[in-house]
Write a structure and sequence with these properties.
The protein has one domain. 39% of the residues lie in helices and 12% in strands. It contains two helices and four strands; from the N terminus they run H-E-H-E-E-E. The protein has a four-stranded antiparallel beta sheet, with helices on one face. The longest helix is centred in the first third of the chain and has 52 residues.
Length: 142
């Protein structure tokens, strides 16, 4: 090699550093994308829960009780059991969600609860006069 000639190109270490940085950026992008998808599905679930709650209130106004779709106080079931009570009079169809919703009616028929199973946050329960015993005392109220 002639002393006046310059060496051009990258060393193997420089190439490895660039590959590692690109890999780290790719992982961050994939993780962020998955989080956005889960938050979007949770927003869809919130809309479905609000729609279901409104239809349950309409049913209550007409009937004076919440639907007896499940067993007694504390015995929850899938919210799809509400179809015969709410569709088509109060809802065109039961909302479809990315996760399952559970429903329970209290023994007094003046209370109900929905267990919301979120993807990107903690599960919680919502409804009217919710008992702490439904789905366990550790499940917070939304």
């Amino acid at each position: 090699m002639k002393p006046w000639a310059k060496q051009t190109g990258f060393t193997i270490v420089e190439l490895l550093i660039v590959i590692v940085v690109i890999g780290i950026l790719a992982v961050i992008t994939v993780v962020a994308y998955n989080g956005v998808q889960n938050r979007g599905k949770d927003s869809q679930l919130d809309a479905a829960v609000n729609q279901l709650k409104k239809s349950l209130e309409l049913y209550y106004v007409d009937e004076g009780v919440y639907p007896p779709a499940c067993g007694s106080d504390g015995t929850g079931c899938n919210a799809s059991s509400l179809v015969s009570y709410l569709v088509p009079k109060y809802l065109p169809s039961l909302p479809t969600t990315p996760t399952t919703l559970n429903y329970v009616r209290g023994t007094t028929s003046q209370s109900y609860g929905l267990l919301v199973d979120y993807l990107s946050q903690a599960n919680c329960k919502t409804g009217v006069n919710i008992s702490t015993g439904w789905w366990g005392a550790g499940v917070p109220i939304c």
